[in-house]
Design a protein that fits this description.
Oligomer: heterodimer
Structural class of chain B: mainly beta
Structural class of chain A: mainly beta
Number of strands of chain B: 11
Shape of chain A: globular
Strand content of chain B: over 45%
Order of helices and strands of chain A: EEEEEEEEEEE
Order of helices and strands of chain B: EEEEEEEEEEE
Helix content of chain B: under 10%
Largest sheet of chain A: 6 strands, mixed
Radius of gyration of chain A: 14 Å
Distance between the termini of chain A: 38 Å
Distance between the termini of chain B: 37 Å
Radius of gyration of chain B: 13 Å
Chain lengths: 115, 112
């Protein structure tokens, strides 16, 4: 049962425009959310995170928004650059107990930024 | 610099053989994880460990085992490789149970 869902397998955006990647989750016990970026033949790299006590976190061109009532988060990239073309994974953790420290990943969204 | 490494990077093996994938980290992290990545499934957790002598099953643990004899290493063993285990395997580690995980470069395993 997929607890973290990325319903868009791909997204294509023109360079300079905004990229918005979406993620939904079902477990209300999740309290920490992360975005990872993955290039082909490499491991995922951490991009940005947000705690459930916040609704926004910004780092340069990357901003993550969290809507707890809707169990939804999004990653905004502004402006998008060709080097941003990669697979983006949404992940969540929390709940304590046996799930402590585990990350639950979505299936990923392939972002393509074209010139 | 501290890092996490995996070996081999590529492996081809036959059905029924035992295979061990190595993972080594130099951050001295207590938490280590093994994932597999398959098209349409994202990253799925195989096994994880919170410290020496501690191991736990993830969501797709059947056919896999791990052991943690020291802080730096968490080898993943496929007891009897099956074609369904053809995948890309990632090892990760983390310092805290709430923090981000750092991933290795991956091992591409093909079972023929």
């Amino acid at each position: 049962d997929q607890q973290v869902k990325q319903n868009s397998p791909s997204l294509s955006v023109q360079e300079g425009r905004i990229s918005i990647l979406n993620c939904d989750y079902t477990n209300s016990m999740f309290d920490y959310f992360l975005w990872y970026k993955k290039y082909p033949a490499e491991g995922p790299t951490f991009l940005i995170s947000i705690s459930s006590i916040k609704d926004k976190n910004e780092d340069g061109r990357f901003t993550v928004f969290l809507n707890k009532s809707a169990k939804h988060l999004s990653l905004h990239i502004v402006p998008s650059q060709p080097g941003d073309s990669a697979v983006y994974f949404c992940a969540a953790s929390g709940g304590g107990g046996s799930t402590l420290g585990r990350l639950y990943f979505g299936r990923g969204t392939q972002l393509t930024v074209w010139p | 610099d501290a890092e996490i490494t995996q070996s081999p990077r590529h492996k081809i093996t036959e059905t029924g053989r035992q295979v061990t994938l190595a993972c080594h980290q130099t951050w001295n992290h207590n938490n280590m994880f093994w994932y597999r990545q398959d098209l349409g499934h994202g990253l799925r957790l195989i096994h994880y460990s919170y410290g020496v002598q501690d191991t736990n099953k993830g969501e797709v643990s059947d056919g896999y085992s791990v052991s943690r004899s020291n802080t730096e290493d968490l080898p993943l063993t496929l007891e009897s490789a099956a074609s369904s285990q053809t995948s890309v395997y990632f090892c990760a580690s983390s310092e805290s149970t709430l923090g981000e995980q750092y991933f290795g470069p991956g091992t591409r395993l093909t079972v023929t």
